[in-house]
Amino acid sequence: ASKGQEMQASPWDAAKHMESAAALAQKLSIWNEVADFYRKASELYVECGRAQPASDALGKAARALEDVKPDDAIQLYTDACEILEEDGRDQMAFDLYRACANVYIKLEKFTDAATFFLRLGVAADKCDATNSQCKAYLSAIILYLYAHDLQQAEKCYNDCSQIDAFLKSDQSRSASRLLTAYNEGDIEEIKKVASASTVSNLDHMIIKLARKLPTGDVTAIQMNTNDDLDEDDLT
């Protein structure tokens, strides 16, 4: 049916049929066809100049594959985000960034998850969605801390602090308190900040990780960061 609609130069209807085929393949657990059919549907929507349904089709494929083929799901989420970014619809991609980060967290690829929250922050900045932007930056910092990468967490905080909206936010203050507590080896303060309301308003997956902070030995993390100092650098 989809092929017939294509031959009649009706890509919209062809895409709808292709999505139906993808949904049936999902019921039958034919995962390769799920991805192929949704991708084809997405291409047909692009042909119509319809970015939102094109992205939605890839998002449906990604959700279907999250548990069985997480790496494929990540690629589909990434492509879905890019379609919206290229069409200037960054705000519509917020949930896709979060969903992709969630898959990375399940795979324990915390640095990659942080990268997607930073992408969400950039998209939010374009849309003047200040609250989403600040939450995204704090989420990224928490992910770096969870992965024992204090140096990257501090770099992320310093980079994000160049943005005035973040610098004045509750999220920035929480991040600053967390980093200070890490540098001072103050486990009680880390736990206190991680359970405060600012962190409790983040995405569920980030709250779960924050509640487990600090992971590992905080003093060991301190020693690692001190080792990185250049003795000849007096600044």
If you had to describe this structure to a student in words, what would you say it looks like?
The structure is a single chain. With about 240 residues, this protein is mainly alpha-helical. It contains 15 helices and no strands. Helices cover about 75% and strands about 0% of the residues. Belongs to the SNAP family. InterPro entries: NSF_attach, TPR-like_helical_dom_sf.
Which homologous superfamily in CATH is the superfamily of the largest domain?
Tetratricopeptide repeat domain
Question: Between the first and last Cα atoms, what is the distance in angstroms?
Answer: 69 Å
CATH architecture of the largest domain: Alpha Horseshoe
Mean pLDDT: 92
Count every helix, treating DSSP H or I runs of 4 or more residues as helices: 15
Most strands sheet: none
Any idea of the CATH class of the largest domain?
A: Mainly Alpha
Amount of beta strand: under 5%
**Elements, N to C (H/E):** HHHHHHHHHHHHHHH
For this structure, the CATH topology of the largest domain is Serine Threonine Protein Phosphatase 5, Tetratricopeptide repeat
- Tell me how many strands there are: 0
- Gyration radius, in Å: 21 Å
- Domain module tally: 2
- Poorly predicted runs of 5 or more residues: 227-235
Quick one: overall form? Answer: elongated
* Helical content band: over 70%
Q: Which class best fits the helix and strand makeup?
A: mainly alpha
